[in-house]
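If you are new to this repository, start here. Below is one unmodified record pulled from the training split, so you can see the exact layout before writing a loader.
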Amino acid sequence: MRLALLFSGQGGQGPAHWQQVRAGLGGPLREALLAALPDLAEEGAAPASEILARNAIAQPLIFAQQMLLWEQLREKLPRPICVAGYSLGEMAACCVAGVFPAASGLALTVERARLMDGAAPGEHGMLAVLGLDDPRVETLAAEAGLAVAIRNAPRHLVVAGPRAGIDAAAAAFAAAGASRLVHLAVRTPSHTPLLAKAAAAFGERLAALPDGRLPVPVLSAIDATPARSVAAAGAALARQICTRLDWAACQQAIVELQPDVVLEIGPGNALTRLFNEFAPEIPARAADDFRSVDGIVAWLQTDRR
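And here is the target side for that same chain:
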């Protein structure tokens, strides 16, 4: 089986993912998890959605949830032919590829969130815009003081910037005929020049990792370039913090690698829905679609000849 792995970013996290991480509290990740999310040790309901959207909570929570699930899957699956991560998900992709171990990756994720918050204090947001031509979105975004952060597909972009600009741009996009507008559960202007300072600082941190060849290539979310070494993957991982992502290019690169199946490790299934629209001939599902690890494995091992 030729398996391609996708790791989603912020926006789809919810109370169920908090509970999943709490249930997995143990093993080598326990100390790092409790340092990042001390409230996991307390019984009771998960934090409110607004709290789960904060960088300092969302980023380590999502990374931990992805790593805990991967640890349950890795011995039951073949080595992936490639990994790719959407925004924060590239942290998990790099970890699975061997750039850093999970506990170190969790600490790096905490640092990533801290640097991003420090580089762009105040109220910011991200907005998905569907149904408008790309140049029109670019123009209206710039007029509102925003930047295009992600290209998911033609006529499907994500813009980011100050909250006041998001609100003004949403009205302008609606008036221009956008078919859908989605406010993402993200409170930072990811993948825009506003985070250049954070990208530079994170790049210095990643540059200190010992270099070596990776057993699995990581497709950069910026332009789908495959990184085959720790140094290359780390450089791309830092640069994407302040650089527009081209997820459509990543999907094309995955298709060209001819996987038999694509699995998204959540939270959510947004990447699966995008991939199914892009390449409906390749089976793709999200881990969150299943009730158990056994269910995921059984689907992946289905004979598709």
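Two things worth knowing about this chain: The longest strand covers residues 124-130. The domain at 3-119+193-300 is CATH 3.40.366.10 (Malonyl-Coenzyme A Acyl Carrier Protein; domain 2).
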